[in-house]
Amino acid sequence: MTSGEYPTAMVDGKEIPYDPDVLRRIQEHPCYSKDACHKFGRMHLAVAPKCNIQCNYCVRDFDCVNESRPGVCSKVLSPEQALVLVREVMNKFSYIKVIGIAGPGDPLANKETFETLRLLKEEFPVPIKCLSTNGLLLPESIDLLEKYDVGNVTVTLNAIDPAIGEKIYSFVEWEGKKLHGREGAERLLAQQMKGIEMAVERKMLVKINTVLIPGINDHHVVEIAKKMGQMGVYTFNIIPVIPLYKFSHITPPTLGDKKAMHDACSPYIRQMEHCARCRSDAIGKLGKDVQDEIYRNCSSI
Q: Structurally, how many domains does the chain consist of?
């Protein structure tokens, strides 16, 4: 493939050759392009309550309207309610270009995710479809994601060494069993790596979220970035840990720590430095959410 085969476009100040569909999935997605986050918005559909792993930094038992972090939502929707919400939002806000499913659990562990994607493909085929996952079920789900036009996939990958991973996860649910310690970390990592490889092969744009946890994986993040760059992942997002659950005692990284880590990782993979740690029901531009207004005024949900 030569650069002349596809048109080029400026993406965050760089001219890159891509086919038109891939370009759109970058230029109109606020997570994949820093320029896009000022122009375009996304909406997350909270249709996936169940999760199949337990991270030591994750608590999903409560919600505050002023709280912005993954795993939080005000209401879990059915696929039919989600479709009503999409109609409402798309009619009001022309700048919404991305429809994503990011929880509050793991989307791939919930059948409602795939029913929602099916309904979206029938009625809203144009907006970019995006999904965030821990990756445990990504290999088994990749065909359905491709069928339903999910072109952007985020995988939360906190370690590529099971000895580090076992410090981050309390358990991993696999084939009806709860796997603990090294066994759970090894299973999760194997599935993540296989799923990421499959997604890249299918020309999905893959973003990696890595939670930066001082004393646990901070010495390891550059190695994750290096490996993901080698695998063809598009962008890498470092998220400072929020001290909750078993990691409530950990002092989170400073903005300076985060910046230094981005700088250390940038030789190996493109960095996303504008993350807003979105809620599972976020709607609007990054940092300018409007979901409270929408939920108050949409009586059908």
A: 1
